[in-house]
Amino acid sequence: MPRQASSAPPVRGRPRDPRTRAAILIAARALLERGGLTAVTIEAIAQSAGVSRPTIYRYWPNAPAVAMAAFLETTGAAEASSKPRNALSALRAQLHALADAFAAPAGRSVAAMVAAAQSETELAKAFRNEFIARNRDATRALLERCVADKAIEPPEDIELTLDLVFGPLFYRLLMGHAPITRSFVDRLVDQVIRARCT
Amino acid sequence: MPRQASSAPPVRGRPRDPRTRAAILIAARALLERGGLTAVTIEAIAQSAGVSRPTIYRYWPNAPAVAMAAFLETTGAAEASSKPRNALSALRAQLHALADAFAAPAGRSVAAMVAAAQSETELAKAFRNEFIARNRDATRALLERCVADKAIEPPEDIELTLDLVFGPLFYRLLMGHAPITRSFVDRLVDQVIRARCT
Amino acid sequence: MPRQASSAPPVRGRPRDPRTRAAILIAARALLERGGLTAVTIEAIAQSAGVSRPTIYRYWPNAPAVAMAAFLETTGAAEASSKPRNALSALRAQLHALADAFAAPAGRSVAAMVAAAQSETELAKAFRNEFIARNRDATRALLERCVADKAIEPPEDIELTLDLVFGPLFYRLLMGHAPITRSFVDRLVDQVIRARCT
Amino acid sequence: MPRQASSAPPVRGRPRDPRTRAAILIAARALLERGGLTAVTIEAIAQSAGVSRPTIYRYWPNAPAVAMAAFLETTGAAEASSKPRNALSALRAQLHALADAFAAPAGRSVAAMVAAAQSETELAKAFRNEFIARNRDATRALLERCVADKAIEPPEDIELTLDLVFGPLFYRLLMGHAPITRSFVDRLVDQVIRARCT
DNA sequence: TCGTAAACGAGACGGTACGTCCAGTCTTTTT
DNA sequence: AAAAAGACTGGACGTACCGTCTCGTTTACGA
């Protein structure tokens, strides 16, 4: 009887110390937060994680990749609020949460990741799948609940609706031409779904 | 007798060769287009412009600044179409033009500049003023013409409307989760101004 | 009854696979021949011997040590010719054989070992005892046979005579200022023992 | 009127600071003396010369090359003694000087350079031309003076004679099977030129 | 026959040095 | 006085090996 019936290959060689990976990501995240992307150098990570440079390269191919991993690992996607409420106010709450994050220092990290993603397809893919897609999924689910609850009229094109909701948020985050306030989010939501409100 | 009697200080020493500045910007733009931001190094610019490194530093403080200058210099803002037409179709045409640019290779340069702007306030300001603001101004003008022509209802918050138009465009450009097609622009415009259409 | 009554401790655990040692030495020798000393890395040996790095360290302390072992193992000392002949011509034959080896690609390995010996006492000792001494012993024996046969006058200082014979050979091998030809060996021998020829 | 009439191109750009080169060589020499070849790393040189790593690479291609340059720069070739004397005793004096150097710690540097020369043709050439050849030239000149003075019979092959003199010295230096004493040199010289002594 | 102990492969890990690239600055000569 | 060229410091890059370690697996022997 095989010990490992399914897919995973039996572990060969010395297993990785999980603390190593964790230390690297924590260090990277810290560097990212103050200092931004340019502060996330392999050198600095190694230093502050108490890890050797080659070890980092054993996990990731370059510094931005570590930064992205750190970002995605430590940035929870939009979680459904624990408080039960009607779908529309849950939607509002979710977007407020995202907007708050964007307005907070953490927003700079998001912006940094968007920037990082512009110069490496691999990072772009990771960011898209792990951050963008998750946020869209969460919001899409709520929109569908709204429709089911008849709180809003069914949108013709739900993906476009998502673009209309997230687009302006990222636009303000990245261009900085105007602040991301709660009232901004409110007006944004109003505008996007008003046409279909009963 | 001074050559420049009035405000400007009399030019002393060897005058700057205007071709130098041009050569640098052209080289930077070329590097930006293929290779992206990371290819725009002072080293490479100097090389391909046939100019010495210190000379470049005499004009700009660092490589991204040159890239930004090159981008802004060679990227015309949205121009009003020469053909006279009604305001609404002019608006559509303008956004189509922008979308086409975003979809073309040049879109990568825009994305690169957004990325560059994330790590330097100075660049962010330049980009905002020279690119973002210009585009918003042009579109705002058309929107106002639409209102004047009674083609659309006056929007409550015109800045928000602009965010709703540009946000999704940049969002798709930067995240790449979906293509920027003509139909996308059409549906976007429809959605944003439908509520106010007569 | 213990298998090894005397000094050695009874073999416990899995015995060493003799093929392992052989594979390592063969790989090391091959690497040494093309590539020289710098090519003999533990990494490369392990790779081409199909052996893990720690295994090599179980046998030798470092890469030059493996190289030296490989060299000494696969390089026979000057053998007495099978054909019986008079002592003087046997001496000549022996030195010609050495000179031929020096002139051949194998000479580069000898030079590499001399070089290796310069930075590690342990290697120096091994090389001296296993290569230098053996060659001197063989030649000393022949010189003594020559004396016994009255082919040459007894040298005052036989060690100096050996230095006079071997010194120039190594000197040319290592400095490369002149080739190691057969005629060179002939003239060398003539010169060294002429004074004492009958 | 050209400032530099002959071959050299007029110096463009900032000239090299001669102290930089000197500092590097001094540091390299010091490292070579204690620590041997393996201690001469670019890293260490840069450190102790107060110079950056890339600067060293601007002068030499790798660490052994710096070591060789340092060795050759700071190791004067055998100089003719200032005291006037007859050719034969001058010859003896010269070889004694070399032997003393070989026996001293500096001898280790010579050995290190021989070793270094075994793995790079470029270094071998430099060492041969700057060290080996110079020593041979000096001794050849004295041998010729001896012949002119009729102190010794003209050797049939003066290059072979030089090999007979230097070979055993290097042989002992590199193999370490016997010390390089003054008496060794005396007996060596006796042996090599006795045959031709009047 | 069944532990036990070593051999062995695999790979993690901290290190050290490598050789390179680029950034900025400084020091010259040339225009 | 600017431009042009190149020296120079300095920081980080990504890679190659090193030597040690920690595993899991294999193989022989001896109890």
Characterization of the model:
The structure is a homotetramer of 198-residue chains. The first copy, chain A, has helices at 18-33, 42-49, 53-59, 63-74, 87-103, 106-117, 121-148, 158-175, 182-194. Chain A is an all-alpha fold. The first copy, chain A, has 2 domains: 18-74, Homeodomain-like (Arc Repressor Mutant, subunit A); 87-194, Tetracycline Repressor, domain 2. In chain A, helix 5 crosses helix 6 (106-117), helix 5 crosses helix 9 and helix 7 crosses helix 8. The longest helix of chain A is centred in the last third of the chain and has 28 residues, at 121-148. In chain A, 36% of the residues are buried. The model of chain A is unreliable at 1-6 (pLDDT under 50). The structure holds a DNA duplex (31 and 31 nucleotides).
Task: Looking at this protein, list some descriptive labels.
homotetramer; 198 residues; Arc Repressor Mutant, subunit A; Tetracycline Repressor, domain 2; 2 domains; 9 helices; elongated; DNA-binding
Greatest interface and its residue counts?
C-D, 44 and 43 residues
CATH class of the largest domain in chain A: Mainly Alpha
User: Biggest sheet of chain A: strands, sense, closure?
Assistant: none
How many discrete domains of chain A? 2
Protein name (chains A, B, C, D): TetR/AcrR family transcriptional regulator
Keywords (chains A, B, C, D): DNA-binding, Transcription, Transcription regulation
Organism (chains A, B, C, D): Reyranella humidisoli
Pfam families (chains A, B, C, D): TetR_C_11 (PF16859), TetR_N (PF00440)
